[in-house]
Amino acid sequence: MPEPTTTPAKLEDSELQSLAVEWRIRAMQGDKLAHRMAQALEAEQRRRIRDTGLQPLPPARSSAASPWWKFWRRRRAHS
What we know:
By secondary structure, the protein is mostly helical. It is built from 3 helices and no strands. The longest helix has 19 residues, at 32-50.
């Protein structure tokens, strides 16, 4: 397998995916260098997914604001 000559950030998405899979397979066979390379490629994949413009989830409502039993009282009142 040819060694990559560019940084993960410069690779096309499909090439990045392919190399990440190849390096992960080698890492699973015990190659420590391959483990580090697979981690770097997978980190770049995660960064790209994160940077695709997906909006972060809104913060969860605090459970302290409304006790759990009030949920049941409200549901019964509407039944």
